[in-house]
């Protein structure tokens, strides 16, 4: 998949490989290959309890039953259903059934607090919720705040019990039937690809979190491109998925591809070193997606466990660029035939780059453009860059492209240029037909592979009664394992304690029990009490006298490091 310029005058880069995209809905596409492989063999397997598995034929039947159940429940076309769960063998089936019934599935992070879930529900407006038992309490709390009835919440789990906290089991949705999703949804082949199937949370390149609308065509195109990679393998692949399948990196590998190609797919709820090592060794895993912190953990694993990784043939790393030193160290551990590839992508545009399965690259590149993908690189003045080694913002155009942000026309206007290229906010350059990622030019941070919106953190900080203004930026450092990490850091303007409560009937002692200035620990604890762990202020807190802003009130983040400090504490 080499890169070539389409036209030097346009400074557009493109893959030399083109693959036609079928005009099919996700369900028809996913199950089209039944019978071409052993449809009774386990296809989705619990890596912790391999006797818990689902074959492709079993999946086909369960999805049909769930579609009937969702329709009888009252799910209408376009209704949103929230899927709140760690990885498990039922996740792909529930995901497919919601889409097959005409709904839009929205996966949420099971680590979210109730306040984060409220924000999500306000954007996506789910009609029904399916939640794993272990994380159902914040769901119930958030649902009550959003006027979602408990009767519309179902729990996901293996428990053979009728109710959990008043919520019914997902199994009550299983209704025997012969239901054809394409006929029941009454869409022709031409309109099906453009229907929205998934609501994906994203921070975009700026501002608060948004909902990216993902179409059937997006999912089908992404899967087709990955199939072209897997079809070239000289071995029978089996994959381990320990990254969250609601995330844009792992979902293309975990949800549809296994059914298309009969790839045994083992699920771990989340990554643990011992769980990962055991699964790879026990099931002779060949392929797995990872993020740099996982590679760092593998590099630090005991040498006595390294034999457990010898079956690995293709490791895909995304979320943040991987340094050559870290990659080389893992190569020393793996079998000589193994390949460690980097991948770069966005929620809005799927996977943009990848290396071929047999290409061992240690240059630090994030890969070559995927088939059918076009890329512009523009400099800080908006001028196109058509030469090697010139940094600029990457703009992407591809069949794997979202259909816009839900109910956010202003963000939609800012997201694309006049030629329909999506502004990624990522700074890249091209060298020898390979793409190198050099960080972000927009304000949204990538923390351990997760998008973090500074605006979201700033909004929460401003809820604190002793903070008058705040700004958040990402501090990029290389940790002791050689991994480039981004740490959220808050610049905070404190309210003078003597002014707290004036005119409100509330004294400063009511607010904090004393007259001492606000401390950094209090700020970090406040964020930790409100937000999921990867949004915590691991980069610290800096107290300043003011936040630099433009005449329109926009935070001038590049000036924060030069802002006068508040040394009153």
Can you lay out the helices and strands and say which pair or pack?
Elements: E1 3-7, E2 12-15, H1 26-30, E3 42-46, E4 53-55, H2 56-73, E5 80-84, H3 91-100, E6 104-108, H4 114-124, E7 126-132, H5 136-145, E8 153-156, E9 163-164, E10 167-169, H6 181-185, E11 196-202, E12 210-215, H7 216-230, E13 239-241, H8 251-254, H9 257-261, E14 265-267, H10 273-283, E15 287-290, H11 292-299, E16 314-317, H12 324-333, E17 339-342, E18 344-346, E19 350-354, E20 368-369, E21 374-378, E22 392-397, H13 409-415, E23 422-431, E24 434-440, E25 445-447, E26 450-452, H14 454-461, E27 467-478, E28 484-494, H15 508-512, H16 520-530, E29 541-543
Parallel strand pairs: 3-14, 5-6, 5-7, 7-8, 8-10, 13-14, 15-16, 16-17, 28-29
Antiparallel strand pairs: 1-2, 2-21, 3-4, 9-10, 11-12, 18-19, 19-20, 21-22, 22-23, 23-24, 25-26, 27-28
Helix pairs in contact: 2-3, 4-5, 11-12
């Amino acid at each position: 998949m080499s890169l070539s310029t389409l036209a030097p005058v346009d400074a557009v880069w493109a893959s030399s490989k083109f693959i036609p995209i079928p005009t099919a809905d996700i369900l028809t596409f996913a199950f089209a290959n039944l019978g071409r492989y052993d449809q009774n063999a386990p296809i989705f397997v619990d890596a912790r309890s391999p006797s818990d598995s689902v074959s492709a034929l079993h999946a086909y039947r369960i999805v049909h039953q769930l579609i009937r159940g969702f329709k009888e429940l009252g799910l209408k076309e376009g209704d949103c259903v929230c899927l709140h769960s760690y990885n498990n063998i039922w996740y792909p089936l529930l995901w497919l059934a919601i889409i097959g019934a005409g709904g839009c599935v929205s996966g949420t992070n099971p680590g979210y607090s109730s306040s984060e879930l409220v924000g999500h529900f306000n954007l996506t407006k789910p009609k029904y919720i399916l939640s794993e038992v272990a994380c159902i309490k914040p769901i119930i709390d958030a649902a009550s705040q959003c006027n979602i009835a408990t009767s519309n919440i179902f729990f996901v789990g293996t428990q053979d019990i009728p109710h959990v906290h008043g919520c019914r089991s997902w199994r009550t949705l299983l209704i025997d039937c012969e239901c054809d999703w394409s006929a029941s949804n009454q869409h022709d082949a031409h309109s099906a690809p453009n229907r929205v199937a998934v609501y994906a949370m994203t921070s975009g390149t700026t501002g608060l979190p948004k909902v990216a609308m993902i179409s059937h065509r997006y999912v089908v195109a992404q899967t087709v491109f990955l199939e072209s990679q897997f079809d070239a393998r000289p071995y029978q692949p089996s994959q381990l998925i320990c990254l969250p399948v609601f995330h844009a990196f792992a979902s293309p590998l975990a949800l549809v591809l296994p059914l298309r190609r009969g790839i045994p797919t083992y699920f771990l709820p989340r990554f643990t070193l011992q769980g990962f090592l055991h699964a790879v060794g026990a099931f002779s895993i060949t392929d797995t997606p990872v993020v740099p912190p996982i590679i760092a953990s593998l590099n630090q694993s005991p040498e006595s466990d390294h034999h457990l990784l010898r079956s690995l043939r293709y490791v895909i790393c995304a979320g943040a660029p991987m340094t050559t030193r870290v990659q080389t160290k893992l190569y020393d551990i793996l079998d000589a035939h193994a390949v460690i590839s980097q991948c770069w992508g966005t929620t809005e545009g799927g996977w943009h780059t990848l290396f071929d399965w047999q290409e061992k690259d240690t240059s630090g590149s994030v890969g070559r453009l995927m088939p059918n993908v076009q890329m512009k690189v523009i400099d800080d003045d908006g001028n196109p860059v058509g030469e090697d080694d010139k940094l600029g913002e990457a703009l992407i155009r591809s069949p794997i492209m979202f259909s816009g942000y839900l109910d956010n026309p202003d963000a939609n206007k800012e997201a694309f240029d006049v030629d329909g290229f999506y502004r990624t906010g990522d700074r890249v350059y091209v060298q020898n037909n390979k793409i190198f990622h050099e960080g972000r030019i927009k304000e949204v941070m990538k923390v351990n592979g997760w998008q973090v919106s500074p605006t979201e953190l700033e909004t929460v900080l401003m809820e604190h009664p002793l903070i008058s203004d705040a700004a958040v930026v990402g501090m990029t450092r290389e940790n002791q394992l050689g991994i480039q990490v981004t740490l959220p850091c808050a610049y905070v303007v404190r309210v003078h304690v003597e002014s707290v409560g004036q005119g409100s009937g509330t004294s400063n002692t009511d607010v904090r029990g004393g007259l001492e200035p606000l401390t950094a620990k209090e700020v970090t604890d406040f964020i930790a009490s409100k937000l999921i762990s990867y949004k915590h202020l691991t980069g610290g807190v800096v107290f300043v006298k003011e936040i630099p802003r433009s005449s329109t009130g926009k935070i001038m983040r590049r000036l924060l490091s030069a802002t006068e400090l508040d040394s009153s504490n």
